[in-house]
Amino acid sequence: MAIQQTKLAFIGGGNMAQAMLSGFVAAKFQPDNILVCAPTATTRETLAKKFSFNVSENNAAAVSFADIIFIAVKPNIVSTVAAELNVAMMHEAKQPLIINLAAGVTTEQLQAHFTSNERVIAAMPNLPSAVCKGLTGLVAAKNCDQQSISLADDVLTCLGKTLWLDDESKMPAVVAIAGSAPAYFFLFLEAMIESGQKLGLTYQQAEVAAMQSGVGALTMALNSALSVVELKEQVTSPNGTTHQALASFADNNFKAVVDDAMQAAAKKAANY
Fold first, then answer.
1. Does any domain span residue 176?
2. CB atoms within 10 A of CB 87
């Protein structure tokens, strides 16, 4: 069976769920094989109209439908959702793979809500999953079987890259360096565009220049044998324009600002 024929269900239809759903459609998963369970009629109608997904207001419907159930709700709702799924799993005598996207809920805490289900994985995707360029951090429950782990990896690799961790305590670091990271890049682009306008470019000119430079730099970093430090030095001529810009960053403690931001993100993720 092609991995795109895997039947997926999402409990919740928020921003992260919609990003992943967009990515699965782009990766050629069939809408007929996707179910979204959401409490609000507006969300169900929007997703059904946009993607032709199956939709339901009944979370228990995910059990009979899916090979994999993604729990994509706020952390304080996870226990309620898990209880509903557990009842359905007992009734159906079926144990789909459960992948939890809610920050701060450990695999052990989630498993405690199920009468019998070792097939539990924690995941932290990011928004570029929508264009199949995402990064998903993953931790399997200690007693999760290898077949379930391989299935999760095969499915989520369709959305970009996967990063498996051996310790769930490292997940906040993935939040800081990947889950929240797209916003860091957007902020840097925003600042570059604003500065470009101050230097006399139109918004459109500054946007094209900043975005293309970003695409070029990341493509070089991905395809070069050189480290990012070596690539940075390659661009920097002594006493040249880049040297002056980097010196200004250093004078303003740029790396410390980045570290403070990532520490704040990780701390928040660890204390949900």
1. no
2. 14
Q: What is the CATH number of the domain that holds 258?
A: 1.10.3730.10
Q: Are residues 34 and 139 in the same domain?
A: yes
- CA dist 225 and 140 (Å) reads 32
- Sign for the CA dihedral angle at 186, 192, 193, 194 comes to positive
Which residue range is the domain that position 264 belongs to?
181-270
Say which CATH number the domain at 115 has.
Answer: 3.40.50.720
Between 203-223 and 181-198, two packed helices, what is the crossing angle to 10 degrees? 140
Residue 248: is it exposed, middle or buried by C-beta count within 10 angstroms (0-12/13-18/19+)?
exposed
Find out whether 205 and 211 touch, Cβ atoms under 8 Å.
no
Give the pLDDT of the chain (272 residues) as one tens digit per residue.
689 999 999 999 999 999 999 999 999 999 999 999 999 999 999 999 989 999 999 999 999 999 999 999 999 999 999 999 999 999 988 899 999 999 889 999 999 999 887 899 999 999 999 999 999 999 999 999 999 999 999 999 999 999 999 999 999 999 999 999 999 999 999 999 999 999 999 999 999 999 999 999 999 999 999 999 999 999 999 999 999 999 999 999 999 999 999 999 999 998 87
Q: Which of 60, 76, 63, 50 is nearest to 8 (CA)?
A: 63
Domain count, the chain: 2
Q: d(Cα 82, Cα 32) in Å, to the nearest integer? A: 24
Distance CA 186, CA 211 (A): 10
